[in-house]
Amino acid sequence: MKLTVNNIPVEAPEGATILEAARLAGVRIPTFCHLPGIHSVGACRVCLVEVDGQRDMAASCVMPAGEGMKVRTNTRRVREARRTVVELMLSEHDGECQTCIRNDNCELQALARELGISNIAYEGEKTNATLDTSTFGLVRDSGKCVMCRRCVTVCNEIQGVGALFPQKRGFKTVIGPAFTRQLDEVTCVQCGQCAAVCPVGAISEKDQIEEVWAALEDPNKYCIVQTAPAIRAALGECFGYPPGTRVTGQMVTALKRLGFDDVFDTDFSADLTIMEEGTELLTRLKKALVEKDASVALPMFTSCSPGWISYMEHFYPEMLANLSTCKSPQQMMGAVVKTYYAEKIGKKPEDICMVSIMPCTAKKYEAARDEMNDSGVQDVDIVLTTRELGRMITQAGIDFRALPESVMDAPLGISTGAADIFANTGGVMEAALRTAYEIITGRELPFGNLHVTPVAGLDGVKEASIKIEGAAPDWSFLEGVTVNVAVAHGLGNARKVIQRIKSGEAQYHFVEVMTCPGGCIGGGGQPRLTDDSVRLARIKAIYEEDEHKTLRKSHDNPAVKKLYEEYLGVPLGKVSHHILHTKYTKRERV
C-alpha cells in the first residue's frame, strides 16, 4: 500500500497499521497501552492521528493503513487530544513520583514530559487504592494503575495463567484478581511478566535491598552472592549501555565493592544441574528401554524455572512425576554453599547469608519454599532482581561505567559456556545435549560450534531429533534410538506442548520449558521494556559469552568434578540426592 504520513511517501505491507506505516516513514507516534506483537486494543488513545477525509481521529495502533491514505500525526488537534488523554490519566494516577520505584523510569512520566505537561489539569477524585504485598515476589499498588491492561494481556494471552482481569466498570474499574482478592489468594505463578510490562509502578518486584544492606553490615554474617547467567547481558542497561552489552567483569567488581565476601556464579551450579539432570534423564531412558518399566515418567521436563514449577503444580499436577527432581541452579548453589563450602571455610550454615541476583521475581518465591532447606537452614536467604541490583549499585555511589573488570571467586565461580546459555530459551536443552551426547557416544554433538540451532531463537515451540549412532558399550541400549526433544518459552506455549503430549500427538523424551518469553534473558526482573529486539540482543550476548569460554561442556568443569570427588560422590548418589534434589506438591487452582 502507498500512503503518506506527514506528507512523507511510504509503502506499507498489507495488514500494516498506521502506527507501523509511520515507523516505516521514520515518524514516531507516542504509544502507551500498545505492546508490539502482543497487545493492540487502542484503549489509551495516546496514539491518535488524523486521517484526511475522516471526521474522527484514529487510534493508530489498531487502525489499518490504507491505499492512498494521508495521515497527519502532529496537528494541533492531535497534540491537544493526546495532552488531554494523558492529563486525565494523571488525574486518577496516585503517582507519588518522588518516592515511586519507577521514578525516572516511568513511561507515564516520560510521556507527560514529552507532551509538555507540567501541571495536573484535572484535580478530580481518585479511586480507592489498595496495596497488595501478599506474595513473595510481587507488590501491587492499585492507586498507581492507569488501566492500560498490558498486565491482563500478558497474564492471560502469553502466560495463560489468568490471575489478572479488569473488575467492575467505569470509574470504579480496578485491575487485579477476581473478586478483588489478593494475589496469594488466586493462582499466580509470580513470573513477574506483569511487572515487566507495567508502564508505571502499579506492579513491581518486592524490594529486598534493605535486607541485603542489613546482612552486609552485620559483623556476624558471612555474605556470599551468586549471579544468574542472564544478569551479565542485561545489568548494563541499568546504566545506559545498549541491550546485549556484556558486563560480567564490571558486575563482579561492583558486587565486591558492595561488600560481599565471595562472588560466585550460578553458572557453576548450572553445570552441576546438567550433571544431575542429564544423569536423571539417562537413568529414566534406561529403565524405560532396557527394564521395560512402564511406570517411568517420560518425557522428562526441566525444572530450572520456578514459575514453570508452580504452573505445573496448579494446572497439571497429574504430570508432576514428569518433572526432573533437580533443584534449580539457584537452589543448588545455596545448598552447596551452606554444606560443602561452609565446611571448607569453617562457617556454620546459619552464619552465612546467601544472596542471589536473578532475572526473575519467581525466584523470590522459590527461595522461600518450605522444602528448600536441605542444608539445615534456608538454602538461599535473599533474592534480588537485576533491577534491584542496579538500584543498589546506584545507592552505593558506584560509577558502574568506570569500573575495572574482576573475575568470580573460586571454586564456585568456575563455569563453562554450557552454563551461560541457560539464560536463553533452548539453552538448558543444548547444554544437556552437549554432555549427554558425548557421554553416550564419546563424541561432540554433530552440530556446528556445539550449537543445536533447531532449539534456538524465539519461535514459541521448537523441536529437534538426534539419532544415537556409535553408542559406547555402557549405553548400547540407546544405539539407533532417535531422541526427540522440545523447547517452549512462555507458559502459553508450554500448554501447547503439554496438550500435544497428552493427546499422543507428540512423543518426546526431554522437554525444556522457560516461564518467560525468550527465557531468563526476558525474565520478569530484567530491565524494562523487553521486546523481541532486546531479547535477541541479550541472547546474542549470551551465546558470545559461551563461545569465548575455553570450557564449553558442563562435564568438563574442573570445580564440579572436584565437588563430586570431595563431597557428592556421584550424580544421583546419596549425598547429591539429599541436597540437590527436591519434591513437588499438588496445589489447588483458584
Features:
4 domains; Rossmann fold; four-stranded parallel β-sheet; globular; five-stranded mixed β-sheet; alpha/beta; 34% helix; 590 residues; Ubiquitin-like (UB roll)
Helix content: 25-40%
CATH architecture of the largest domain: 3-Layer(aba) Sandwich
CATH superfamily of the largest domain: Fe-only Hydrogenase (Larger Subunit), Chain L, domain 3
Q: How far apart are the termini?
A: 48 Å
The shape, in one word, is globular
Largest sheet: 5 strands, mixed
Q: What is the highest CATH level, the class of the largest domain?
A: Alpha Beta
The CATH topology label of the largest domain is: Fe-only Hydrogenase (Larger Subunit), Chain L, domain 3
Question: What average pLDDT do the residues reach?
Answer: 95
Q: What's the gyration radius in Å?
A: 25 Å
Judged by helices, strands and strand pairing, the structural class is: alpha/beta
How many structural domains can be distinguished in the coordinates?
Answer: 4
Low-pLDDT segments, ≥5 res: none
Strand order of the largest sheet: 2-1-5-3-4
Query: Strand tally, please?
Result: 18
Query: Hey, roughly how much beta strand do the residues contain?
Result: 5-15%
- By DSSP (H or I, 4+ residues per run), the number of helices equals 18
